[in-house]
Every structure is written in C-alpha cells, then in structure tokens.
C-alpha cells in the first residue's frame, strides 16, 4: 500500500494538535493545572501507543535498527536540552518519498525517508526534529483539549485509528473521515499559526543548545517554500507545509531571531551521511541503485563524502547479488579508515552472503565490544552465530543481552529462534510470548504461553513461571477491555 492514507490520518491528528484559540500574537500562556487534569500525559501516551501498534504493523514502517538508532540519538540529543526532562520520546521512520514529519500524542515523532534524504545537512534534519519536539514539550494537544473538551479529541483520535485500519479502501476512508469533521478541523487549523511560531522559537533554542547550525532551520523552510511555489495548487506543496503552514511572518520571525547570532559551521556526522546513503541504496531497483552510486564515484561526485558513496555502492551491489564486487567495496571502505558500526554490520552481511558465518560472527564479536549499545550489531551477532551452527554461544549472548535490554522484542524473537534450534520448546514459546507482549499483541502471547504449558521439556520452576506470566497477560487483556474506548 502507499503511505498517503496513513500519513494523512496521522497528520489529521497533528493538524488539531497544532491549533488552538488559546494562542495570542505575543506568545502562549502557561499550560496550568486544568490541562494536566483534563488530558494527562499518561492518556497522551496511551493514545500514541495505540496508534503506534497500527504503524509498526504496516509495511511502510521502516524496521531498520541502524536508521532508527541514528534518528533516536539525534532526536534525544535535542530533547535533552528541553526543560521538560520527564517527557520520553520515540522517533521512528516511515518509508515514504514525500517531505514530511509529524508529532503524535505521547512523544512519538515520525519522519519520512524523503525528508531525511532531502535535508541538505544534519542541522536541517535536526531543525525539523527540534520543531516537532517543541510541539510535544509544549503540550499543544493538551492545550487544545482544555479548550475544546475531551470528547472532541477522543473522536478525532478514534477517527485517525479508523482511517489507519481502513487500508482496503483508503479513498472511501478519507471521504468518510471528512464528513461532519471538515469544518471543525479547518476552524482549528486557522488557529495554528501561533503554535507554529512557538515551536519555531523553542526549536531554535534546542538547536542552538545542541550545537547545531541554527541558520539551517530558516534555510530548510525557505527551500520548502520555494519548492511549493513551483506548483500552482496547495495540494502539490510538500506535506510538511500543508500541516505546518509557513507564512512570511514565520520566516521573518526566524530571521530576526537568528540575526546577530555568531556564525557557526557545523560538519555533518558520518552516521548522517551513511544513513542517507543506506536509504538511497534501498530505493528503486538494485541495478538502478548500483548505477547511481557508480556514476558518483566515476564523476567523483562525493555528495556526503567518499565513505558514504562507497558504503551506498556496497549496499546496492549486495542487493543486486554481486557479492565479489560488494566485498571489494568493503575493502575500499576499510582503506578509508572510517569508524562506524554501520560499516561493521555491512562487512558482516557480505561475509554471511559469501558463506563465511564464522568470520561474520568473529567480526561482530569484536565490534560489539567497541559499540556495545548498537542493537544492529547485537542482532547480527546472534544471527551469525546461528548461521555458524553454534546456538549455545548464541543463546548465551542473547540471554546476557536481554538482561540489559529486557524490552527489546526483536532480541526476544531471536532468542526464541535460538531455543528452537536447541530443541528447547518451552523456552522457545516463552520467548516468543514475551516478544508478542512487548509489541502489544496479547492474544498471540497467550497462545505461545499455552503452547509452552503443553511442552514436555520444562521443569517445575519453568512451568510455574509460564503459568504466572500467562495469568498476568490474561489479566492485562481483561483490564484493557474495561478501559474507555477511543471512538
């Protein structure tokens, strides 16, 4: 499916979030206790998690630990400069070529791959994240609720979820969404200007305190505005402009705030360039991706540097099944002496494809010591050990890893796969159940735990743990069924 119905549904929520009659030209008042009471942070988080369950199950959700890890490092670097240290953020990526990003209730912030690849610098990408972070920290959604009443926002969030579910007929879903809601939503959007200006102001502060180039925020929006002028209709403008109305006053306000500040040139990180190269190498056909990166090397058009260009070429060659050529590019990357966990995982993937699982595992064991927090290395190491037919080593690493990252569903799935290879059925189903529970798929978790109960290879202690966990999850299902429905 295409992302449009999904992104439009989420943007529908955002359009309401970023609008309120409480705004005034000179700034917004403090939130106050009323909004805290009417629409709590816990409720915002619950709504965000409900929508995230739909997003993670959709093919457009980019389940790439390296891209996600980079975006969360970047986003949390900015969020750490916020005065609201209690807010937890989760940044995720949707595979969509359009220029868009959006904030949802509960600190969930989505970014389209098109925006990442179009950003001319890391500071530009950071400026968009800073803007979205500011929408969340200023609790613009709660401000709207305080004025409009919880019933209205509950129906709007339920409307967004309904649109997400109606994938089989997106046009019909959007048509139904607008019936009876269009006028109200448009009225709210008319008040969004001051919220946008507040997010600009606070976003600039976050950008500066995080030591990025604040001029790139203005540069990004100006480029978007010029891009939109090439088209005659509003609907042809970049999605980010449609949901974040850009006015001459906003641009002038940004310029005034930046004027007089000392110039600071900020180089892009290697990870920013590698992530962009990775996304580009995954676009279109493998052969076209190879041709593009080969042309850049031939012309010495190293947009993002030679390391990123060769990295993208190696990935494209790997996609195209040209393993010897991909291995050659990895050797060239090693000669450049660039240091990145993404180069380590690429090298391991090539070795795996060439049948050298033991070599891949050895490489990743060394990389894991240098990059202990990189989840892609941890996943790759378990998979390499399994491919090398040493499940005992794989399960030891997975179990140790889960002591530090107990809420990682992907590692629980790998743990289940490893237990299956070892023939340990009870533990296999138990690990699978934990993965499903972490993803919010509670009925599936129950099924796995019931299979664990029926296995014949557990001891009394293990069966007791399974029984206890099964009772917990069944109680959770009952408790959640009693919660007010978002409709």
Topology:
Layout: H1 4-17, H2 32-38, H3 41-56, H4 65-79, E1 90-94, E2 101-104, E3 108-112, H5 113-118, H6 122-137, H7 140-148, H8 150-165, H9 170-178, H10 182-189, H11 192-209, H12 215-229, H13 239-243, H14 248-258, H15 270-281, H16 286-299, H17 306-319, H18 323-336, H19 341-353, H20 357-370, H21 375-387, H22 391-404, H23 409-422, H24 425-438, H25 442-454, H26 460-481
Helix pairs in contact: 1-8, 2-7, 3-8, 4-6, 6-11, 6-12, 7-8, 8-9, 11-14, 12-14, 15-17, 16-17, 17-18, 18-19, 19-20, 19-21, 20-21, 21-22, 21-23, 22-23, 23-24, 24-25, 24-26, 25-26
Description:
The chain has 487 residues and is mostly helical. Among the domains are: 4-258, no CATH class; 409-487. The protein has helices spanning 4-17, 32-38, 41-56, 65-79, 113-118, 122-137, 140-148, 150-165, 170-178, 182-189, 192-209, 215-229, 239-243, 248-258, 270-281, 286-299, 306-319, 323-336, 341-353, 357-370, 375-387, 391-404, 409-422, 425-438, 442-454, 460-481; strands at 90-94, 101-104, 108-112. Strands 1-3-2 form a 3-stranded mixed sheet, with helices on both faces. It starts with a helix and ends in a 6-residue tail after the last helix. Residues 1-37 and 158-191 have low confidence and may be disordered.
> Unreliable stretches, pLDDT < 50, 5 or more residues?
1-37, 158-191
Q: How many helical elements? A: 26
Order of helices and strands: HHHHEEEHHHHHHHHHHHHHHHHHHHHHH
* Radius of gyration computed on alpha carbons: 24 Å
**Class per helix and strand makeup:** mainly alpha
Question: How much beta, percentage-wise?
Answer: under 5%
Amount of helix: 55-70%
How many beta-strand runs? 3
Strand order of the largest sheet: 1-3-2
The main pleated sheet reads as:
3 strands, mixed
**What distance lies between the first and last C-alpha atoms, to the nearest angstrom?**
25 Å
Shape: flat
The overall pLDDT average reads 82
